[in-house]
Amino acid sequence: MPRPTAILALLSIGAALLLFLLSAAPLAQGDTLHRILLWHALAPRLAMGLLCGAALGLAGALFQQVLRNPLAEPGTLGIFAGARLALAAVTLWAPGWLALGQPLVATAGAVLAMLLVLLLSRQQGFAPLAVILAGLVVSLALDAGNRALVLLNFEALSDLWITLAGGLGQGSWSMPLALLPWLGGAAVLAALLRRPLALLELGEAGARGLGLPLPLIRALGLGVAVLLGAAVAGTAGGIGFVGLAGPALARVTGARTPGQRMLWGSLIAAGLLAMTDQALRLLAEPDIPAGGVTALLGAPPLLWLMRRMPRGMAGPVADVPLAKVARPAGPLLLLGVALLLAVGVALCLGRLPDGTWHWAGGAALEPLLTWRAPRLVAALAAGAMLGAAGVLIQRLTGNPMASPELLGVSAGAGLAMMLGVLLLGSTDRLLLTGLAAMGAGSVLAMLLLLGRRSGFSPDHMLLAGVALTMLAGAVTVLLLAGGDPRMALLLGWLAGSTYTVTVKDAWLAVAVAVPLLLATPLAARWLTLLPLGPAVGRGLGLALGRARLALLLLTAGLTAAATLLVGPLSFTGLMAPHLARMLGLRRPLPHLAGAALAGALVIALADWLGRTAAFPWQLPAGLVATLMGSAYVIWLLARR
Amino acid sequence: MLAAAWPWPASAQGQIQGPAPRVVSLDLLLTECLLSLGVVPAALANIPLYQRLVAQPPVPPGVPDLGPPQEPHLEFLQALQPELILAPSWQAPALERLERIARVAWLPAFAPDGQPLEHAEALLTRIGALTGREAEARAQAALLPPALAAAAAQLTDWAGRPVLAARFLEDGRHMAVFGANGMIGAVLQRLGLRNAWTGRSNAAGVASTGIESLAGMADATIVHFDRGAETARALARLRDSPFWQALPAVREGRVLAMPVIYPSGGVFSAIRFAAQLAALLPGRAPHG
Questions:
Q1: Looking at residue B249, what DSSP letter applies?
Q2: What per-residue confidence (pLDDT) applies to B101?
Q3: CATH of domain B16-145
Q4: pLDDT (tens digit per residue) in B151-171
Q5: Looking at residue A241, what is its pLDDT?
Q6: pLDDT at A430 > cutoff 50
Q7: Cα(B119)–Cα(B88) distance, rounded to whole angstroms?
Q8: CA–CA separation, B28 vs B144, rounded Å?
């Protein structure tokens, strides 16, 4: 038994109990109502905190062991997103089904999400990288669908936001008692899986040599973890970071075997969540949901953990095909023509008030251009910037699922804006844009500060970005739970709306995009050398740290500018580089040019679709781009 | 072209001084004011939401939906050729381009000084002036003081008694409550009732809290807004809770349902709320 780990677990659970006693003591002396409050509301709340924390910790430890990825937890694998989407859809279209119980509906959604993830990674034998990439795609897609539902039905779903904000308040023992058998069953299964899971660490060949059915063990481990995550998501909602932090803390304090990490990781997680929730119960009035707060508190420890992690821990690196012979002129011309067509359609094709389609030309187009042109120009600029940024980050990290949003720059911009609305009570455009720029800038500065020690290792940069993105997500949930109608404005921006773009904004977008895009070819040599590995790069005279720094700055600049235009959520930075590569553009320069064109194409089409598909209602371009992109990726993966 | 497609129906009241301008509203409160003055709008943002949350006065048939209040479709709006757009002032920074389509009246949707009823009257008067319905606005606003007085007279036994206005969320664990800076809290105060919720609330006068906080308001009578099936599910879950069953209000039958009132509503909603309280409470003798 690793002693520091056990001490940490005891300390966190002890702190939770102590806080509970502080609020319980006066009630135990009170009248009947207060004693019932204590035993039937506050005690189940403590139990709920411990159980949810333990479930998430165990789920996190299982996910991390099976996927060999320290970032794996229910939140990052589509479990929470699947549960949320299922509950939102059922609330809107089949509210009667809610009588079956919210946890059951949530579980159905989570299981479907995970099945989708498994289906997508089946042919790779549930290999770790394939599963985590599929999880990312499914998560993004489901959350995009969820945002679309919330935007179109803000009031109908705002209650659900409150319910699933991660609050643990209870009115009876029914929820903790319902959760108990899930956790107990999962614990037994996890104990049985403990040894086979440990052998996974031998690697593919070693484990196969021992005759272990690898896909079965992985699927079992994942299945148990999914059920645990879904049970929590359906009762209290998404609770971020706990599932990540518990096992991670167990590991740093010396838990070596998977069994130790599962046991102590879930105990630490239980203590962390219950402690946070009990502290909130004592301090906060009205109640603040613990789920949002754990994510807030979890970001700094994650950043700290990240700095201690050896290189290469952030996940396996995929091959990036290099310098395949391909004539770039053909694909680039194709993308260019497609882009021109899309621009034509976006400018001319719209709908009349009665809903019929209408192609406007000449004089009829003139009055419409004042509405259509600025947002289209901004969309094109943002799309091109995100496409180029995607190429930079994917080549820099050697990871085809890296996306510029993951650097956290967008999240920083979003956080600053939300706090501006909430604390300053202002919805002034200029002020908010300024705040967003400051937010993006300070995140960038922080990344640079943190990254200096690791020589700007891409893995570390991505980890920091993920932490910040999750932080911003937690703040969003907290703010939406407050129910301020002004948050609807931000919800539009968060979903990538081009609605508010003015002529001045459009020109500014072009003025920023052009020089940044023109600077990207300067990075072409670095982009060729970096994927060959640090040793080869150094051998060829590459100043690794400086090259990474320059590429990071450029990526962050492109992303920040695009975020200010279309919001933080966009699949484009991920998709556009893939599209360009599939067309045969593999060398850095053509790849950059192709991805910029493809990015502009995707967002321009998304903007037009969002404006016309649900007329007179509209969906933000970023959201439509995400839906389009994820449908495409799922089709692509399922076909393979 | 489109103006011809939508004939100009006479107002419910009939005695109008000349036709009102073609008006569009982007906010539920502003829509309530418009409709209570007998104006038939050229279009409204999010009609289903109005019907669900405000309900009264009803939207006249045939009024087109403009889409989401934060992002009304600009091309659609341009084709409608309205003469006046009513929009909440907090949206002004995002929607300033509407001014290229028609005159926009940016109206404060939240009471800035914590005086929601005075604010609602002023808002009604402004909208009356903007739409040429000053007389209707005066008449409507003049109804509020006697309506409040009449309700207060029926509730003299209840003076100083704690009442909690709430809406129970479907999960049976949370509820929305209403602070003094919103219309609901202000009406309670004018009727001489004591608002049992004394905690914080947001700019619209709403807060969400767990049902455990009912322990601190044990003597309050609970008046909650009934949203039909959704509320029925909430109550079914609450009945499973020993804590809920132990509440004095529940044991003594002091949990009363009433039709939905828009908590950020104006004069019309305030009059309805007062009347509903006066109809609901006197039948139940106050405790003690």
A1: H
A2: 87
A3: 3.40.50.1980
A4: 999 988 888 889 999 999 888
A5: 80
A6: yes
A7: 13
A8: 20
Residue of B nearest to A38 (CA): B243
Report the CATH fold assignment for B158-280.
Answer: Rossmann fold (3.40.50)
User: What are the start and end residues of each CATH 3.40.50.1980 domain in chain B?
Assistant: 16-145, 158-280
Chain A residues near residue B262 by CB distance under 8 angstroms: none
The per-residue pLDDT for A427 is 65
Q: Helix, strand, coil: what percent of chain B each, to 5? A: 45, 15, 40
Say if residue A583's pLDDT is above 80: yes
Size of interface A-B (CB pairs under 8 A): 160
**Burial of residue B119 (number of CB atoms within 10 Å: 0-12, 13-18, 19+):** buried
Q: Inform me whether the pLDDT recorded for A27 exceeds 70.
A: yes
Mutation site for A-interface testing, chosen from B65, B212, B240, B250 by largest number of A Cβ within 10 Å? B212
B58 C-beta neighbours (distance < 10 Å), count: 10
Contact partners, residue A598, CB within 8 Å, separation at least 6: A335, A387, A575, A576, A577, A579, A580
Instruction: Report helix angle A79-93 to A102-121, nearest 10.
Output: 130
Shortest CA distance to A387 belongs to which of A561, A612, A261?
A561
pLDDT digits (tens, 9 = 90+) for A500-557: 788 888 888 898 899 989 988 888 888 887 767 667 777 777 777 778 788 888 888 8
Instruction: Please write the tens of the pLDDT for every residue from A47-73.
Output: 999 999 999 999 999 988 887 777 778
- Cα(B48)–Cα(B65) distance, integer angstroms: 9
Which of A379, A408, A234, A418 is CA-nearest to residue A306? A408
Tell me B57's DSSP state: S
Task: Return the HEC string of A144-158.
Answer: HHHHHHHHHCHHHHH
Spatial separation of the C-alpha atoms in residues B17 and B50, rounded to whole Å: 28
ipTM for the whole complex: 0.75
Find the mean pLDDT for residues A118-140. Answer: 66
Q: CB within 8 A of A259, min separation 6: which ones? A: A191, A194, A195, A198
Interface test with A, best of B77, B80, B174 (most A CBs within 10 A): B174
Chain A positions touching B200 (Cβ under 8 A) are 285-286
Give dist(CA B60, CA A545) in Å, integer: 67
| Per-residue confidence (pLDDT) for residue A313, from 0 to 100 | 37
Identify the DSSP state of A237: B
Residue partners of A215: CB distance under 8 A and separation at least 6 = A125, A126
Compute φ and ψ for B72, nearest 5 degrees: -65, 140
Closest residue in B to A481 (Cα–Cα): B208
Q: Domains of chain A by range and CATH?
A: 3-308 (1.10.3470.10), 338-639 (1.10.3470.10)
- Res A104: pLDDT: 80
Which of A288-292, A469-473, A605-609, B114-118 has the lowest average pLDDT? A469-473
Q: Could you tell me what percent of chain B has a pLDDT over 70?
A: 91
Asked if A315 and A71 touch (Cβ cutoff 8 Å), the reply is yes
